[in-house]
Amino acid sequence: MDPATEIPPPGLIPAPSSHRIVPYIYTEHDITRLLTAAGRLHSAHRADTYQTLIGLVAVTGMRAGETVRLDRDDVDLEQGLLTIRNSKYGKSRQIPVHPSTVDALADYARRRDARRHRRDGRAHHHAPSATSFFTSTTGTRLLRDNVSTVFPCLVRDAGLASSGPDRSPRLHDVRH
Q1: DSSP string, 62-128
Q2: Among 26, 40, 129, 140, which one has the highest count of C-beta atoms within 10 angstroms of its own C-beta?
C-alpha cells in the first residue's frame, strides 16, 4: 500500500517446504499381517511383546516412545487407564482403553511375569527386574532403538510394500 515499499519478485524467496513425511495408512489387513509377523519372532516373549506393543499403538494412537516408556504403575488395569508421562513437549495425559485392550494388556502382563518366574525359578511373588511394562527377553526395559530396528523387519516379513520414497510403513504411522 506504500508506494515506497519494494515487493520482491515471485520466486526470490523460496516457499517454505514441508518436511513432513506422508504417513502410510495401514488397513486392518495390514495390522493383522504385522501382528502375524511379530508372532513369528524368535522367542515367545519377544513375539508376545511386539504383538502387544503394536496392537496397543494401533488401538490407542500412542507414540512408539510412549509405549516403551510405560511403567507397570502407568498401566491401571482396574480402571482401564494408561498414564503417559512427560511425552511430547513434556506433557502428561491419561488414555482410557477399551475392556478388550485391558484384557490384552493383562494377558501380556500375566504371561510376561510367568515366563520370568519359570526362568528364574523364584517364588511366585517376585520382584520384576524392570519397572517397565514392556520388557526385553532379558527382563529389562525394551529399548526404542531396538523397536525401531525390529519394526522394518516385521514390515518386510508381513509383505507390506512402500508406496513411494516418502511412504515406507513406519511404526509411528500405525497410530494414524
Answers
A1: --HHHHHH-BGGGEETTTTEEEE-S-GGG--EEEE--HHHHHHHHHHHHHHHHHHHHHHT--SS---
A2: 26
Q: What's the order of all strands across the beta sheet hosting 81-84?
A: 75-76, 81-84, 93-96
Residues 6+ apart with CB under 8 A from 19: none
Rounded to two decimals, what is the model's pTM? 0.81
| Distance, CA of 91 to CA of 73 (rounded, Å) | 18
Could you report the per-residue pLDDT of 118-172, keeping only the tens digit for each?
Answer: 655 554 344 456 799 999 999 999 999 999 999 999 999 999 977 666 567 999 9
Q: What is the CATH number of domain 28-174?
A: 1.10.443.10
Q: Give the residue-averaged pLDDT of 65-90.
A: 94
User: What are 166's three cell numbers?
Assistant: 516418502
Element containing residue 162 per DSSP (H, E): none
